[in-house]
Design the sequence.
């Protein structure tokens, strides 16, 4: 049997994915395979479309809830810089 991974600990929870590009992705971690992490009820936000910072955007999601704009999305694991639970964002 395979050892549990960090992905297993976060599955089913609202997470924040910081990625290499100018996007921040927030949603419920649904599944992970060899190359992709899939989130549901996700907010994929292009930071170039607003004047807000990554940190402020995530903090607003923590305070007011996630505003999904995708039912489901998949992100290549090699694009992910960090993974955290939304509830772990410090106000």
Sequence:
């Amino acid at each position: 049997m395979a050892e549990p991974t960090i992905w297993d600990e976060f599955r089913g929870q609202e997470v924040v994915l910081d990625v290499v590009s100018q996007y921040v992705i927030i949603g419920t971690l649904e599944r992970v395979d060899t190359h992709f992490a899939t989130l549901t009820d996700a907010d994929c936000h292009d930071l170039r479309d607003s004047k807000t910072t990554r940190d402020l955007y995530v903090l607003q999601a923590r305070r007011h809830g996630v505003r999904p704009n995708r039912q489901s999305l998949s992100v290549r694991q090699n694009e992910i810089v960090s993974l955290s639970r939304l509830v772990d964002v410090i106000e």
About this structure: DSSP finds two helices and five strands in the chain.
